[in-house]
Amino acid sequence: MLRALLLTLFVVAIAHAELCKPDAQNAFKVRISIKTALGDNAYAWDANEEYLFKAMVAFAMRRYSSKSTTQISNVLLCNVTDRVSFWFVVTDSSKNVTTVPGSEVEAAIRMNRNRINSAFLLSDKTLQFLKITSTLSPPVEPSTPAWLIVFGVVLCLIVAGIAFLVVSGIQKRKKKNKESTERENLEEKVEVTVTLENGIPCEALDLKSGHINGVFAADDERFTSL
User: Fold this and answer.
1) For the Collectrin-like domain, which residue ranges apply (predicted)?
2) How far apart are the two ends of the chain, measured CA to CA in Å?
């Protein structure tokens, strides 16, 4: 009994070795750049990380097909390198000696790519499935349309220009009125009332207080007193 069990395990191991090898049918190569992604916080790739990877692939297969019975043991890894690259295949849970078609594995990986990346704190660029195209997230659309933003900016510039012209015109008008008032006050201060008498400029006569001629005043003082 024991001999038969060992023989079965040996046959299965050989079959698995044939199923999982570089460029094998339905096999996929994975390249991981942990140091590039996390820098000083990079973790070591060990047996625990390999187990997590198998679990995530099994999860993706089961989620892709609700009737799938894929187990962690159905995910085979081979040719693991220190720079963290390896090949993997998914075996058929019902037969365990054949692999799941690559198209199904690819569809399952693409469907759950974000969940797999999150499990390893990586992205499509640092966790690469070389034969599976990246699933780029849809571009984020701004809540406000671009044309509305441009229209708002242009409208603000127009309003600012109108306000500037109005304020500038008011200031210029005030300045002009002030200069005109100052000019009128200055003319009033320096204005001298001058009249012409036979072409000769004479001071205006103050009718109320009168004006005394100095020549006649002197004659009155000389002849009037007795």
Assistant:
1) 24-226
2) 181
The token pair that represents 111 in the structure block: 């469907």
- Last residue in a domain, options 129, 158, 188: 129
The string of pLDDT tens digits covering residues 29-88 is: 999 999 999 999 999 999 999 999 999 999 999 999 876 789 999 999 999 999 899 999
118 and 146 both lie in a single domain: no
Q: Examine the fold and report which residue of 129, 151, 185 is the final residue of a domain before the chain moves on.
A: 129
- Buried (b) or exposed (e) across 20-42, using 16+ Cβ within 10 A? beeebebbbbbebbbeebeeeee
Q: Where are the alpha helices (DSSP H) in 42-112?
A: 47-64, 102-111
Q: Which residues does 60 contact at the CB level (< 8 Å), separation at least 6?
A: 108, 109, 111, 112, 115, 116
Residue 102 and residue 151 in one domain: no
Average pLDDT, integer, range 158-187: 84
Q: Does some domain include residue 107?
A: yes
Q: Which helix (H) or strand (E) holds 78?
A: strand 75-78
Tell whether 40 and 91 lie within a shared domain: yes
Q: Cβ(129)–Cβ(31) under 8 Å?
A: no
Pairing of strands 28-32, 127-129: antiparallel
Helix axes 47-64 and 102-111, enclosed angle (nearest 10): 100
Q: Which residues pair with 167 in a beta bridge?
A: none
pTM higher than 0.70: no
- 99 and 79 housed in the same domain: yes
**183 or 80, which is more confident:** 80
Asked whether residue 198 is assigned to any structural domain, the reply reads: no
CATH code for the domain of 116: 3.30.70
